[in-house]
Amino acid sequence: MKIYRALSALLQYPTAELAEAAREIAAMVGAERRVSRPARAAIGHLAAKLAGADLLESQEAYVGLFDRSRSLSLHLFEHIHGESRDRGQAMVNLAEHYKSRGYGIDANELPDYLPLFLEFLSLVEPKESAELLSDVAHILEAIRVRLEGRGSHYAGVFQALNDLAARKPDRIAVEDLLQHDKSPEAEAAELDKEWEEAPAFGGSADGGCSAARETLNRMAELAVDTRAPERKGA
User: Fold this and answer.
1) Which of 129, 138, 148, 200 could join 169 in a cystine, given CB atoms 3.0 to 4.6 angstroms apart?
2) Among 210, 180, 231, 226, CA closest to 12
3) Cα 73–74–79 angle (5° rounding)?
4) For residue range 148-164, what is the model confidence (pLDDT) as tens digits?
């Protein structure tokens, strides 16, 4: 389903390609009636900002949210397993679930990376997608609440995901995730300290990933199809 690819694209590291396609991606989300009006409005504002802001500013804002805060991590199991051994087993189980549906991970990314997870949801039956979203709805809702508290329009993406889920998030589970939250400044300081101790050459040079680039390429194709359907097959 295109809706999951659209939401996946919006959650990826901002690039010039994403900025160019952002408004049309938001239009795809806006056409999905299962997504609530507030979520569609927030996503429209997010798209306008991605399309109109300086790219470096968009990238800095993204890093400040998702890379410098564990509570906003786009790796789902970070929120429930942290760095425990259970997270590794959960990763294996999720990768096996992808494989059982005939989809292997050919990108250099972990199975619980949310944009990758949404890519998978776009490939399976709608009922299964809605059920799988329900399984992580409490995580998505906790992230939404945190983003809303920071005044970020990215919160609309997470509201849209919960709108698409088969069941509403469990309030007690959400509260459990939120009760130990630290301030953004405290989280960033902790991560800075850890990064100071990390190996010097252990990261990606461009801040993105191959999964992100592949998704944006697909979204660009969808945007072209939306603008000019008569060109299909040209």
Assistant:
1) 138
2) 210
3) 55
4) 999 999 999 999 999 99
